[in-house]
Amino acid sequence: MGKCKFADSWLENDEFKPWLKPVAENNREAYCTYCKKKISVASMGINAIKSHMHGASHKAAFGHREQSQLSIASFCAPTATPLPNTTAELVKTATTATSPPSSADIRVAMGSTSTMRAEVIWCLNTAANHHSLNSNEGISDIFKSMFPDSDIAKTFTCGKDKTGYIMRFGLAPFFKQQLVDTINKAGSFVFMFDESLNQSTKKKQLDVHVRFWDDDCVQSRYLGSQFLGHGTAQDLLHHIKECVAKLNMMQLISISMDGSGLTCSCTQHSATTVERGFSVNKQVETCNILEESMEALRLICDKISACGGALKVPLTKELLASVASARSKYRIHLEQERKKKETTRQSLKRKEAEDELEVLKKKRKVLREVCDTLQKDADQLAEQAEGKSGSLMAQLITKSNTLRRRHKEKLIDLEQTQKFIESKSDELRHMSGV
Description:
This protein is α+β, with helices and mostly antiparallel strands. The protein has helices spanning 46-53, 56-76, 87-98, 103-110, 113-128, 139-146, 151-155, 160-186, 233-243, 268-284, 291-307, 317-324, 326-386, 390-432; strands at residues 20-23, 26-32, 37-40, 189-198, 203-214, 217-228, 252-257. Among the domains are: 8-54, no CATH class; 163-324, Nucleotidyltransferase, domain 5 (2-Layer Sandwich), CATH 3.30.420; 343-432.
């Protein structure tokens, strides 16, 4: 064990003062209030403190703390407003002053708006160029090295996981809801769909596109995808209903599909729109991602294409609020997935126990039949021996005794099997919570 101890003089150092604290009843450790962790100084002394200060985790914690303090201060700071000149302006000012901030305003204000905008633009660029999520791993350190004087680069953290949950739980749901609202507001629309084999998931993929009139022109937009286990008419109908659940179907004027005689309408241009979507799908498949993430990427790419580029996508307050809530949605999703896996594991375990119990019951039935047969045969041989004499009687008695010994052995097996059955039954009752 080292001989170095915590020195009170370290607390006077300007670099250490904001975050360094001693550990009560242990003078061989220090405590970092930013990282909320203990630092051992027994071996290296003050050099251990310096090493921790220059570490990546401490710098990231420092950056988040500084940005959070700045955001809270800017959110809570009062704004100067001119005095109203009329009674109407006075009423308007009073109403505005007393109205509480919305949840969207709070989510945006509590995060770093400038940094968040940069992260959203980077995620849009990742989707537009079909980059894999793994390519973003460690990108924050690269930006900090490239732009050491940038405050945004210091707080920019958009690695593989964050890029993924911003896209799937922040951008894609917002763009889809925005598209649904636009379609319902536009009026009449045409529904187009087609299905093909997804080479990545090895499942049939049903892509849905919608055509409607907006901004004085015809818009053809990607609405979503469904992954099919089977491709029967009933399966297609079920998944199509899931895709259009939020649309006003009273405004539907046509349904288009490529290569089917069961459609209400089928045009060459409609088929081209859907087939073009599959070409985008092939580029997205290179990431080898989950089905839900693939649909999210498709929605984002469609929005970028409609806006004319990643830099032309409007970064509205509502969009930033959706992105700010993506992490909490991601955590909820992870918890749901954990519970789903646990439920599946318990179901498999119960199914295995039920199968074992069924095998044991069949074994018990066979053993009972064998025991009854052995007992019956042994009794018959003993009865036959009573009417005989000499060597024949001896042979019959020997056979009878042999069968009785086997009968006892089978009875022991039967007793053990019965105990296993009771134990397995108790295990199943425990799984069911009975």
